[in-house]
Design brief:
The protein is mostly helical. Among the domains are: 93-182, Glutamyl-tRNA Synthetase, domain 3; 386-472, Arc Repressor Mutant, subunit A, CATH 1.10.10.350. Helices cover 47% and strands 10% of the residues. It is built from 20 helices and 12 strands. It has helices spanning 25-39, 59-72, 87-100, 110-122, 190-200, 213-226, 256-262, 266-275, 288-294, 309-322, 325-338, 346-359, 366-372, 374-377, 386-389, 394-407, 414-427, 432-444, 452-459, 461-472; strands at 12-15, 44-49, 81-82, 103-106, 148-151, 158-163, 167-172, 180-182, 205-209, 232-236, 239-240, 305-306. The strands form 5 sheets. The protein has a 3-stranded parallel β-sheet. Strands 4-5-8 form a 3-stranded antiparallel β-sheet. The protein has a two-stranded antiparallel sheet with strand order 6-7. The protein is elongated, with a radius of gyration of 32 Å. The relative contact order is 0.09. It catalyses: tRNA(Glu) + L-glutamate + ATP = L-glutamyl-tRNA(Glu) + AMP + diphosphate. Residues 341-471 form the Aminoacyl-tRNA synthetase class I anticodon-binding domain. Its EC number is 6.1.1.17.
Length: 473
């Protein structure tokens, strides 16, 4: 059966990770593409945990995957499905294939299969597709022994995969074996389980990495064997590192949780990952709602995308500047927990929100934002670093002492603060820059800070005067 057109039925996509480790950045992008495609069309985005490999699957990995998706803001519909819990259903379908004549019982042992391939190799064959002698055997000849159920794959002609990204992919049927769908121990194979789950979950579009493209031909045969509708295939290229090689730990962070712990905002990650291998016109920076409206399979390229950390940081900087203060505070607290850094106190939380307007548009990550907000998060006595301390000479200390008196009865507005500081600087025959340096040292303990007016307005009159008095003394 042919794939359905993109708009023929309500869209249902799925993300189906194996819980054998953390959520990889490539898997996160696959999940994001599925999520955007479904959400932008009023469809459903489902989650299935492919945990049939009982030796490698762990609850900890499942929890890490769910946490990574949650951090990215990718919500799924309904409960996450366990593939292992559906093994009885998979076996049921294998027996239905037997009844339909599209599968058969195979009593061949591992030793017999190995001997077959060894004989073919001796004849010069580089690869031998196993041809079971039980494919058309008379049931009367069946032994009383364990058997596997194999699918009856066509042995002539071609199987064509109509892929939205890759185009028409053709596979010669003589290169495909009669794959096992149910092992002799009663356990279903991955190839069968995936198709049964996708069919039962109503998945209309299978959007996944192109490392699964070779599986599509065999899985399509299962659809045909059961007379089920084949979904729309979309196999997306993998992500490479900046050097063009397959992404690995040598390129830096590969797990989604690592990016949270490094302090990248989720909105920035979504924007960047959306553009990683997908494009629409000149759109580079966009909100999540805009991404949902724009995203389509036709914009996915065929070549591997390259991870570019500078572009990621630039994208994240734009989203930090656009972010709502309360939402940024909430995500910063998540970052601190992920990075195993001390939590903010109640007072620090309030001051950070007040400082957002003068720090969020100058940072690309949360560590940078917190560093710029140091003046609001620190407490007296302010620790002055060596560079800033050079500005606190005796003359400057005397000026700060004078300034504290002028600020006692000031109305705390930027206009009046500018007037007072300008008057003091003029009275001492110095430019404002000469006055700003000791002010930065007194207020923040650093020489690189937001404007002195912003710092004074954020920490307030009493705290400003107290810090200036500390420095003057």
């Amino acid at each position: 059966m042919s794939s359905t057109p993109e708009s023929a039925s309500p869209v249902v996509t799925r993300f189906a990770p194996s819980p054998t480790g953390s959520l990889h950045i490539g898997g996160a992008r696959t999940a994001l593409f599925n999520w955007l495609f479904a959400r932008g069309r009023g469809g459903k985005f489902l989650l299935r945990i492919e945990d049939t490999d009982r030796e490698r699957s762990t609850p900890e990995a499942t929890a890490a995957i769910l946490q990574g998706l949650t951090w990215l803001g990718l919500d799924w519909d309904g409960e996450a499905v366990s593939q292992f819990d559906r093994r009885d259903r998979h076996a049921q379908v294998a027996h239905q294939m037997l009844e339909r004549g599209t599968a058969y019982k195979c009593f061949s042992t591992q030793e017999e299969i190995a001997a077959f391939r060894a004989a073919k190799e001796a004849e010069g064959a580089s690869y031998a597709v196993f041809q079971s002698p039980w494919r058309d055997a008379d049931p009367a000849s069946f032994p009383d022994a364990p058997y596997a159920i194999r699918m009856k794959a066509p042995r002539t002609g071609e199987t064509k995969i109509s892929d939205t990204v890759q185009g028409i992919v053709t596979v010669r049927n003589d290169q495909l074996d009669d794959m096992i769908v149910l092992r002799s121990d009663g356990n279903p194979t991955y190839m069968l389980a995936v198709v049964v789950d996708d069919h039962d979950m109503g998945v209309t579009h299978v959007i996944r990495g192109d490392d699964h493209l070779n599986n599509a031909a065999r899985q399509q045969m299962v659809y045909d064997a059961m007379d089920w509708q084949v979904p729309v295939w979309a196999h997306i290229p993998l992500i490479h590192g900046p050097d063009g090689k397959k992404l690995s730990k040598r390129h830096g962070a590969t797990a989604v949780g690592d990016y949270q712990a490094l302090g990248y905002p989720a909105a920035g990650m979504r924007n960047y990952l959306t553009r990683l291998g997908w494009a629409q016109g000149d759109a580079e920076l966009f909100t999540t709602d805009q991404a949902k409206a724009m995203f389509g399979l036709e914009g996915i390229g065929r070549s591997p995308a390259r991870l570019d950390f500078k572009k990621l940081e630039s994208t994240c900087g734009w989203h930090l500047a656009q972010g709502e203060d309360a939402a940024l505070l909430h995500e910063i607290e998540g970052y601190l927990a992920a990075a195993d850094r001390p939590a903010l106190t109640s007072e620090q939380r309030d001051l950070l929100v007040r400082a957002m307007y003068c720090v969020k548009d100058r940072a690309k990550t949360f560590p940078e934002l917190l560093d710029k907000a140091h003046f609001a998060l620190t407490s007296r006595p302010v620790d002055v670093d060596e560079a800033a301390g050079k500005a606190l000479d005796p003359v400057s200390r005397g000026i700060l002492g004078e300034l504290t008196l002028r600020l006692q009865n000031a109305s705390w507005t930027k206009q009046e603060l500018e007037s007072i500081l300008t008057e003091v600087a003029t009275a001492h025959g110095i430019g404002f820059g000469k006055l700003a340096a000791p002010l930065r040292a007194a207020l923040a303990g650093r020489s690189a800070t937001p404007s002195v007016y912003d710092m004074m307005l954020v920490i307030g009159q009493a705290e400003t005067i107290a810090r200036l008095q500390d420095a003057a003394a």
